[in-house]
Structures are given as structure tokens and as C-alpha cells.
Design goal:
The structure holds two protein chains of two kinds. By secondary structure, chain A is mainly β. Chain A is built from five helices and 15 strands. Chain A has a 13-stranded antiparallel beta sheet. In chain A, strand 9 and strand 10 form a beta hairpin. By secondary structure, chain B is mainly beta. Chain B is built from one helix and 22 strands. Chain B is globular and about 60 Å long. The two termini of chain B are 24 Å apart. The chains are: A mainly beta, B mainly beta. Chains A and B meet through strand 3, strand 5, strand 6 and helix 5 of A and strand 2, strand 8 and strand 16 of B.
Chain lengths: 280, 418
């Protein structure tokens, strides 16, 4: 464990970091750890993750449509179109709720996945099969499995709750033209396919710019890049595009968001297995 | 059984493709092309057209049956959906058409769905023709009773006729309660004289009813469903015309025939699933009065998935289910009275959502075996090819499915989705 005695100078206001933001960061840091001089890398990483989470609190609900483009080593493409609705929850030990519905490929049109995410427990998931009108509770044990044949694992797509990981601050560096905190995080939940992830949060808005995923052999497996952040409802940043590249199999998946909407008035009642039957 | 092919999302995702389909599909594909991928502001047309052929390696058992080894058909199943801008009203129309080369009864049309659905805060109301599924197990859908089986489609009872209904759903913290009023009864369909997969006697079109109201007897059902932690469960009650007919031999001008007799029954059932990591424990149980003496029946089993098996990201699902049924001779026939199903599902988790499902259902008293293998794969964005094979073993004269002893078959289907 490295103790950081020069925290203030190292993390002082820099290019691209408004003084107010810096002050907020420091306030958060001070509240979290009165003995600043002995702040560990772990505590710093935790503070950064908490600040990122705090800045995204209160989004309520959102809806988005997206296109998932799957590419293999030969450049062959396959496209999935999805709609997603998500609801923020504040229950202890629980994460957010979401419904993902497929519009393409057309043979799976109408197929929907309801997820009640948890922090460390396995998520609750139900799949709706429209041809049979059957809602089936499915196992969520396979968090590391491919999501519909893409390079995204299920665990890459669910809500990124702070308490799902342990953190360690690594360094600060520029990334994609902005200044970033680089933090290593280790999954605490069961059945993860990763030994660790390295996350780049930009220092100005605490938006994730990049994640490196390390497999169970601790070898670099995938890199996820976030592009084209836009601010919605005056405070919530969402990307226009995410690209996941698998370094081991040469495949990649691009996730393109057509639109995000916030404040749709969604309620808990729309995220139940019973209501899942009524998906369009 | 095809439902089972795509029950994991992080793998095989396909929602049991309205799955009937093969060979010259270019013709049908062209015919439906004008629909295009229409998504116009709350309106959508989707569905599939298919070409299919059944291959029967053995000659038929009965004289009237068409002897051809290759039995083709074509079909269309479009679905039109309209949604109000508020999202609170959905209108849905889903007709189904099949033209079969050899069996006039298999050439048929049905309205699978034609409904209006209102979505409120904590309630929904559906009126019209709808489809409802109850249950948890895979090899046999014991408690599923709202919709009648479309028996000309397949022998696995997974194809259903549209059911006229009013369905009101109330959702609360303590679960969801569904109330059903089913004002009109649909009779089960059977293969015609020329068709395969039937018994020696023809099934008459005019059925007999236990109720004087006949097919207009208002049937009622209620279902409470709930989940807590890893447990999903539902308790249901049904009172009305039983969906399974007793086939009664009667003499007609043309000789002996079977007349379907539909009796009034009451049925109370439980279905539950315990989702424990990669293992799903499933149970369906019911008691029914009105078909001979009151009896109990149950199906229970387990589905365990081995994730990421083999060199790629494939999943292997292992399934085992036991079926028991205490019905008497006076009740409609069931093939699942003392049977065991052991099966597997291989999901490749590839771009084409390739999957293979198979296994035998073994009657451990009579020794008879119904084995099946089903495979499917997507080609491009819009084509799906499917293969379904069914074999029957140990079908001697005492076996319950002796009538189908020469009807092993292979179905090849190619579907074009739009």
C-alpha cells in the first residue's frame, strides 16, 4: 500500500478542471477521510468512483434506442437493434431495473429481458419470448457470457454500482484529449469473468472514457471506449457511441445510441415480470 | 419443446421463432418484401413467411393416408401492432395461414391474436383474441390451459389457437392477479384423413359438449403470480370447458369415427421455479375434477447450464423432468402419465444464434420412447433454417402411441422474417 503524502499537489486544479469541480472533489475527499495525508491509493480510487456515482444520482428513468454492430476478424457485420428502458432505484443492496427489447434481427423482434440488478447478489432476470407469450426466469450466473453474441458481457452492460468493486488509484494522465484519473477496480461480485478492470474517468466531469478488461489469467482481454458524450436534462452525461474491442479474438462490437430521453415518468410497476408480457 | 431452444438470452436469444418454415422460400420472401421493416411511429408489421417440408421415411399405417415421403407446405404469420403515442393502448392483429400439399385439414387459417390492450398504473386490460402461457417446465406443459392446442401444426402441443377473452390484471406488491373470462371455446384441430400423425379412425368435426351452452359456455380463470428472491410461483384456478377432449367412438354412415367430447372441468394448479445459480428447479402440479375421478398430476425437473463450455462461448444445458398423471380411463388420453425426459441444449452463442436441442421422453412403464432433435440457425439478418426430427421407439400394440408407429418424421423449415 502506497501512502500518498502529496495528494493536494498531485490532484490540484489543472487544465480543464474548473475550480468549483476541484473544490467539490476535495470536499468529498475530506469528508470521506479526515486524515488526508494518509490517503491510500485505495481510498482515492474509492472517492473517485463515489464522486462519479454521486454526479449521476437522481436521473430517475431513461429510455434509449441503440444499434449494436458486431464485427468479426474478417469484417463481417451483424446488427442488433434494441430499445432499453431503465429505472433508478434507491433500495438497499439493489441496483437499477431495466427492460431491453429487441427489434432486430427480426426473428427475435419483441424478445425482452427484464433485469433487477443487485450489488453483490446475483441479479434477477426474466426473458419474454413473444411467440409463446412465455416469461421465463433465467439464470444470471453467467455474467461473463457474451450478450447476444457480442463482445459485451452481461456484466459490462448492467448498472455500475460503486459497491460492486474494490478500487485502487493508479495515476492521472491524458486520455482521448482530456485529463483522466486512472483507477483499477476489482469485481467483488461472484462469477465475474475479470480479475480486474482499469477505468479512465475524466477529471472535469467524472465520465468514463475508457475501460480495460483483464481476463481470469490477468491478461488484457478487451478495451471499451466511450465517444461523443452529451449532457441530458442539464446534468446527466451519456455517450453517443461505445466501442468494445476484443484483443484476443479480433472481434469488436460497436454500440450506437440513437437517442436518450430522461424523465419519461416510468415507474416500478413497468419493471415487473407480469408487465413484461405486455412488451410491444 | 422449441420454446426451450431460446430461453437464455446471454446465448440463444431467439424467441421460439414462430417457427414453421423451408425450401422455395424465395417466392414467399418476394411476396412479403413489400411490407418491408415497417416501424412507423407506433406502428409495426413483423412476422414471417415460411416454406416447410416433412419427410416420412416409412409408409403410412392406414389406408387413406397419403403415402408420399415428402409432404410440403407454405405459410405466413404476420403481426400488426399499433401503439398509441402515450403507450397506454396497444392494438394487435396476428393471423396465421398454412397451405399443406397433402392434408386438407392442415391447410388452415387462424386468428392467433386480435386484441386491444390498455395499460394503466398497476393494471392492464386485454379484450379480444389473445394468447396466454402458464407454466414452468419444458417437456410437458401440464398447467397451461387458456388456449386450445392447434393439433394439425405439430404433435408437441406448443402451437395454440387464438382464444377470445377478457383479461384483467391487477399488479400489487403482493404479486399480480389475472382474471379471465373466456366466452367462446375453440375445438382442437386434428389431421385429416389424408394426413399423417393420426390414429386409425377419423375425428369428427362436430363435437359433443358436457354443457348445454356448448362452445358458448363462459369459462372463468384466475391466476396469482409472485416472485420473492430466487422463487417464482403461481397458483391458478380454471372452471369451464376442458381443453382436452375425450375421443368417443361412434358409428357413422361411413363406419366408425371418433367424436370429441368436451366436458366441464375444474382445475387448480401450482407452478413454481427456483432459480439457484445456473440451476433451475421446476415444478408444475394440478388437480382436476370433471374428467372421470378427480386426479392429481405433476411435472418436476431441473435445468442446469454449463456456461462457456468447449473452445468458444457455447453453453450446454442439461435437462431432466419427470411426469406423473393419475387420471383414470374415463379421462382424455395423455402420453405423459409416467414418463421421464432427459435432454440437452447446445447454444453456440454465435452470430447466427445456432442451437441444438434434443433428447428422449421415455415411458418407464411401457418402455415406449419419443425422441426428438431440433436445430436452428439464422442466415443473414432475415432467414432462419430449422430442422426438427422425431422418432418413436417400442411402439408395439400396447403402447399408447402405437397409432403413430410409422410416423417418424423430419421437418425442414426455412423462414423469412420481416
Amino acid at each position: 500500500m502506497t501512502y500518498r503524502t502529496t495528494y493536494l499537489t498531485e490532484l490540484g486544479p489543472r487544465r480543464g478542471m474548473p475550480a468549483a469541480v476541484f473544490a467539490a472533489t476535495m470536499a468529498a475527499a475530506l469528508l470521506a477521510s479526515p486524515v488526508l495525508a494518509q490517503d491510500s491509493d485505495e481510498a482515492l480510487g474509492q472517492q473517485i468512483a463515489e464522486e462519479a456515482d454521486r454526479r449521476d444520482l437522481g436521473w430517475g428513468d431513461n429510455a434509449s434506442t441503440m444499434r449494436m454492430v458486431l464485427r468479426n476478424r474478417n469484417g463481417d457485420e451483424s446488427v442488433r437493434e434494441l430499445r432499453r428502458q431503465a429505472l433508478e432505484t434507491h433500495d438497499e443492496g439493489a441496483g437499477d431495473k431495466s427492460v431491453i427489447t429487441f427489434d432486430a434481427p427480426r426473428d427475435v423482434a419483441g424478445t425482452s429481458l427484464l433485469s433487477h440488478t443487485k450489488i453483490l447478489e446475483p441479479d434477477d432476470q426474466w426473458l419474454f419470448l413473444p411467440a409463446l407469450k412465455r416469461v421465463k426466469r433465467i439464470s444470471s450466473a453467467n455474467k461473463s457470457g457474451p450478450f447476444v453474441g457480442s463482445e459485451f458481457a452481461y456484466e459490462d452492460l448492467v448498472s455500475q454500482e460503486v459497491d460492486k468493486y474494490e478500487y485502487r488509484f493508479l495515476r492521472e494522465e491524458s486520455c482521448g484529449g482530456v485529463e483522466c484519473f486512472v483507477v483499477e477496480r476489482t469485481p467483488l461480485y461472484e462469477n465475474s469473468g475479470y480479475t480486474k478492470q482499469v477505468v479512465w474517468w475524466d477529471v472535469s466531469e467524472y465520465r468514463i472514457q475508457r475501460i480495460d478488461f483483464y481476463d481470469r489469467k490477468d491478461t488484457l482481454l478487451k478495451t471499451l471506449l466511450y465517444h461523443g458524450y452529451r449532457e441530458y436534462a442539464g446534468e446527466y452525461w451519456r455517450p453517443d457511441r461505445m466501442t468494445m474491442e476484443n484483443h484476443q479474438n479480433g472481434k469488436s462490437t460497436e454500440l450506437v445510441f440513437d437517442e436518450w430521453s430522461f424523465g419519461n415518468g416510468l415507474s416500478e410497476g413497468e419493471f415487473t415480470p407480469s408487465r413484461l408480457r405486455r412488451t410491444r | 419443446m422449441r420454446s426451450l431452444r431460446r430461453t437464455r438470452l446471454v446465448g440463444t436469444l431467439r424467441p421460439r421463432v414462430p417457427r414453421r418454415r423451408l425450401l422455395v422460400a424465395a417466392v414467399l420472401g418476394g411476396a412479403v418484401a413489400p411490407f418491408g421493416p415497417a416501424t412507423l411511429d407506433g406502428q409495426e408489421i413483423r412476422g414471417s413467411a415460411f416454406v416447410e417440408t416433412r419427410l416420412f421415411p416409412s409408409d403410412p399405417a392406414f389406408v387413406d393416408q397419403r403415402g408420399a415421403a415428402v409432404s410440403p407446405s407454405i405459410g405466413l404469420e404476420p403481426e400488426l401492432i399499433w401503439e398509441s403515442s402515450s403507450g397506454q393502448l396497444q392494438l394487435r392483429l396476428k393471423p396465421f395461414f398454412r397451405i399443406d400439399a397433402h392434408d386438407g385439414s392442415r391447410t388452415h387459417f387462424d386468428v392467433r391474436e386480435a386484441s386491444a390492450l390498455w395499460l394503466g398504473e398497476g393494471w392492464t386490460l386485454l379484450a379480444g383474441v389473445g394468447k396466454v402461457f402458464w407454466g414452468k417446465t419444458e417437456a410437458h406443459h401440464l398447467v397451461d390451459i387458456i388456449n386450445q392446442t392447434d393439433g394439425v401444426e405439430d404433435i408437441d402441443t406448443e402451437d395454440k389457437l387464438g382464444q377470445p377473452m377478457v383479461n384483467f390484471t391487477l399488479e400489487r406488491d403482493w404479486g399480480a392477479i389475472d382474471f379471465f373470462v373466456l366466452p367462446y371455446f375453440r375445438e382442437r384441430t386434428y389431421p385429416g384423413d389424408r394426413g399423417r400423425l393420426r390414429g386409425p379412425l377419423p375425428v369428427l368435426d362436430d363435437a359433443a359438449y358436457g354443457s348445454g351452452a356448448g362452445r358458448w359456455h363462459p369459462d372463468l380463470a384466475v391466476r396469482w403470480s409472485y416472485f420473492i428472491g430466487e422463487l417464482d410461483l403461481a397458483v391458478s384456478a380454471f372452471r369451464g370447458t376442458g381443453r382436452e377432449p375425450l375421443l368417443v367412438p361412434v358409428s357413422t354412415g361411413d363406419g366408425l369415427a371418433l367424436q370429441p367430447q368436451y366436458d366441464i372441468i375444474d382445475q387448480v394448479s401450482l407452478d413454481a421455479q427456483w432459480t439457484r445459480g445456473a440451476t433451475l428447479w421446476k415444478l408444475e402440479a394440478m388437480t382436476r375434477g370433471g374428467h372421470g375421478d378427480r386426479f392429481l398430476a405433476a411435472v418436476g425437473g431441473v435445468e442446469h447450464t454449463l456456461f462457456g463450455i468447449g473452445p468458444g462461448p457455447a453453453d450446454l444445458g442439461l435437462l431432466a423432468e419427470v411426469m406423473l398423471d393419475g387420471r383414470s380411463e374415463e379421462a382424455p388420453f395423455t402420453a405423459f402419465d409416467h414418463d421421464v425426459f432427459v435432454g440437452f441444449r447446445w447454444a453456440f452463442n454465435d452470430l447466427a444464434d445456432t442451437s441444438i436441442l434434443g433428447g428422449p421422453v421415455v415411458d418407464y412403464e411401457s418402455g415406449e420412447i419419443i425422441a426428438f432433435l431440433e436445430a436452428e440457425r439464422r442466415f443473414g439478418d432475415r432467414w432462419v433454417a430449422e430442422l426438427e426430427a422425431r422418432w418413436l421407439f417400442n411402439t408395439d400394440a400396447t403402447a399408447p402411441v402405437h397409432d403413430l408407429r410409422r410416423d417418424d418424421f423430419l421437418t425442414l423449415r426455412l423462414s423469412r422474417f420481416f
